[in-house]
Amino acid sequence: MSFVTPYGIGIDFGEYGKSWYFDVTDFTPLLKGDKRVNMALGGQWQEEMDISFMFIVGTPPRDVVEFNQLWQGTNRSGAARINAINNDERYAPIDIEVNPNAVDFKLRSTITGHGSDGEFEQNGGTVYHYVNFDGEYEENFWSVNTECSENPVYPQGGTWVYDRQGWCPGERSKVEVLDVTEFVTPGENVEFDYGCSEPANGAGDYQVPYCTSVSELWTC
Question: What are the pLDDT digits (tens) for 50-61?
Answer without folding.
Answer: 788 888 888 888
